[in-house]
């Protein structure tokens, strides 16, 4: 049994993480921290929770007391302020913000407009995508859990670039996410009337996840890659679909062979026929990938879908927990989506 704590337990990602951890047979939740709802019960904030876990104020010493692993589900910039203190107290940390995903503090500063508060830890943190960094994650003290859009794009692109099956130049990622991807915000932009019956692009040429995708696919290809990334907001609660356009360097069999790198992966599904849709992945920890080779215009179109709150955040965090603890990677996770 491993003792865990969650800081930021009432945001969308934090609440989903709490739900998953409560269903994990080898986990005990010892502290749940919420700045906005300290002193309240979790079930008073989210009525779907049957157990009444008491939410606490943020006190690093208290959070570390009795904890083996601490999840930090805080806004970008805030996690980096407290993570160094958590590590000094001997706990391992899985951070769900962007603060420890980057290898270069200058790239973080460029895209997040923040001076990194703990840049000395960037060389120690491991990018928390198990399908790529599984062995490094197992021995990590600090894991930077990847972003939702980034997981969808990187998992689709990594095998192709690693195998040299596509050109590294001219990559276009057209991604669409449910409204929960923006977090539990009171912003007018996310109100029902603003989101319903509409689809809109945002962060065009400036979205922060661009840099995270570029970092990882550049490492896969062995050359620096710049992509065109455009996210869109869908009038649904959750789910991401990324449509990716590439120039192929091989035929259909070569593309299939590149994706064989995921053979045996518990949470990757490669479609042999057709392409995935959001309904195939919501509620589960699967990233589903399909492709069509358009020979007429010599273009490869890859479709990648995942649940932004599970495989794109909390489910991946539980995968990382399992790796840190030597558990079966599937513990506490369900790879079957809801569909309805």
Molecular structure report:
- The protein has 340 residues and is α/β, with parallel strands linked by helices.
- The chain folds into two domains: 2-146 and 311-325, NAD(P)-binding Rossmann-like Domain (Rossmann fold); 149-308, Dihydrodipicolinate Reductase, domain 2 (2-Layer Sandwich), CATH 3.30.360.10.
- 30% of the residues lie in helices and 19% in strands.
- It has a seven-stranded mixed beta sheet. It has a six-stranded parallel beta sheet with strand order 2-1-3-4-6-5, with helices on both faces.
- Strand 12 (287-294) and strand 13 (299-306) form a beta hairpin.
Task: Give the SSE layout.
Layout lengths: L1 E6 L4 H11 L4 E7 L8 H4 L14 H5 L4 E4 L6 H10 L3 E4 L9 H8 L13 E2 L2 H9 L3 E3 L3 H15 L9 E6 L14 H4 L4 E2 L7 H13 L6 E6 L6 E7 L5 H7 L9 E3 L16 E8 L4 E8 L3 H16 L15
Parallel strand pairs: 1-2, 1-3, 3-4, 4-6, 5-6, 7-9, 11-12
Antiparallel strand pairs: 7-10, 8-9, 10-13, 12-13
Unreliable stretches: none
Taking all Cα atoms into account, the compactness measure Rg is: 19 Å
* Helical coverage, percent range: 25-40%
Total tally of structural domains: 2
What is the count of helical runs?
Answer: 11
**Share of residues in strands:** 15-25%
* CATH fold assignment of the largest domain: Rossmann fold
CATH architecture annotation of the largest domain: 3-Layer(aba) Sandwich
Widest beta sheet: strand line-up: 8-9-7-10-13-12-11
- The average pLDDT is 94
Q: List the helices and strands in order.
A: EHEHHEHEHEHEHEHEHEEHEEEH
Q: What is the number of E strands? A: 13
At the fourth level of CATH, the homologous superfamily of the largest domain is: NAD(P)-binding Rossmann-like Domain
* Structural class by helix and strand composition: alpha/beta
